[in-house]
Amino acid sequence: MPLVLELRMATSIPLEVDALRLERVVTQPADDVARTLVGYGNGDVALGEFFHVSGSAAEDETIVWKGDCSRVKWIAAGLSRGFVRIEGNAGMHLGAGMSGGEILVDGDVDDWLGAEMRGGRIHVRGNAGHLVGAVYRGGRRGMTGGEILVDGNAGNEIGHTMRRGLIAIGGNAGDAIGAGMIAGTVLVFGIAGCRAGAGMKRGTIGLLSAEPFEQLLPTFHYSCTYCPSFLALYLSHLRELDFPVPGDVDVSSYRRFCGDLLELGKGEILTRST
Question: What is the mean pLDDT of residues 11-19?
């Protein structure tokens, strides 16, 4: 039986639960987990004040959060192993800095999803906020490994300064996708905003919507139109993970643009050929 944390009551003041680490709770009974201090306003409260705690993560290394946790920040931050499921919405910084394990969210997630993550997988069935897999302000790199899958829409600055890894957005995305990107792959299956790839050095941004993308920066130059073989591998992998991949993406050809020529210029943006 997993460790189950069921929200007792909603709060307008965010809870910060970065002190609750799976690596620690696997050795604790439910009563000790309930006494874990979490951030609340300018002080701390016991987790049990807001969550009913039951079960144990000792055997299956699984934590289940139940309820609308949209005001609960830092869930599964720094996760290195195991499985975390959120049966509802989740707040900011979900999975930030994680290096392993898996997170599944049945609802929506706020900003900074998987920020600076190093490994593992996050799958969000709903929508995500801004700065998915991005670098924190003042940092050097965003995500450096792992996978972030968002079935719905996502906000601005997806993959900001990412170094490695895969981000896949099933719906629409905001502005500045892959801004400052060092390497890695971002795939967007819906409509994308402006300034995609601004300042990118290397990496791949796939804008795979059938809608024409006409907001490309002038510092990206057309290279060729082709059918990238690597894309088929990504799409097959995503389908295995139950990610919603449109059927016509495989048979389409794509226009390749190289850039950002104001930087190293070894990045690429792929757009659907009309």
Answer: 95
Q: What's the pTM value of the predicted model, to 2 decimals? A: 0.97
How far, in Å, CA of 263 to CA of 98, rounded?
A: 29
Query: Could you write out the DSSP letters of every residue in the chain?
Result: --EEEEE-S--SSPEE-TT--HHHHTTS-HHHHHT-EEEETTEEEEGGGTEEEES-STTT-EEEEES-BTTEE-TTTT--SSEEEEES-B-TTTTTT--SSEEEESS-B-SSTTTT--SSEEEESS-B-S-TTPPPTT-S-S-EEEEEEESS---SSTTTT--EEEEEESS---S-TTTT--S-EEEE-S---SSTTTT--S-EEEE--SS------TT-EEEEEE--HHHHHHHHHHHHTT----GGGTT--EEEEEE-TTTT--EEEEEE--
Chain position carrying tokens 């050095």: 201
| pLDDT tens track for 29-85 | 999 999 999 999 999 999 999 999 999 999 999 999 999 999 999 999 999 999 999
Rounded Cα distance between 115 and 160, Å, is 9
How many CA atoms lie less than 13 Å away from 150 in the CB half-sphere? 32
What domains can you pick out in the chain, each with its CATH number?
60-272 (2.160.20.60)
* Greatest pairwise CA separation for the chain in angstroms: 61
Portion of the chain with pLDDT greater than 90, in percent: 94
Please state, in angstroms and rounded to a whole number, the distance separating the CA atoms of residues 156 and 41: 27
Closest Cα to residue 186, out of 137, 223, 134? 134
Compute the chain's Rg from CA coordinates.
19
| Residues 222-255 pLDDT 10s | 999 999 999 999 999 999 999 999 988 988 999 9
Q: Are strands 267-272 and 254-259 parallel, antiparallel or unpaired?
A: antiparallel
